[in-house]
Amino acid sequence: MSILMTLPKMLDQCIDECLKCARACEECFRACLDEPDVQARSQCIQLLNDCAQICVLSAQYMARNSGFSKELCKLCADICDACAQECEMFKDEHCQKCAQICRQCAEMCRQMAG
């Protein structure tokens, strides 16, 4: 839901999905650091960080109606997909849930970029 102005519904939904994904990635990042196979998760941990950051940045660009929002949403979708793919390799609940949320965000961002 837009706070200060009326944003198109799809834009508003995409901002919400990006923020949800950023939070999921941050939580999964923290949980991965506590796993016994943390060394095997180094690529996953890096992608979680990248994904969280691009999601927040995308939400900021969309909120201010930047002319670069669509390009950033395309990149965000690509990074979310990469993060989901990496998380899916680990069978713990936090990685599986994060992968699902990343896939949802990627789909919404692709719609915005389209």
TrEMBL record:
InterPro entries with a match to the protein in the record: Csp_YhjQ, YHJQ-like
Top-level taxonomic group: Bacteria
One Pfam family recorded for the sequence: Csp
PANTHER family in the cross-refs: CYTOPLASMIC PROTEIN (PTHR37310:SF1), CYTOPLASMIC PROTEIN-RELATED (PTHR37310)
Protein name: Ferredoxin
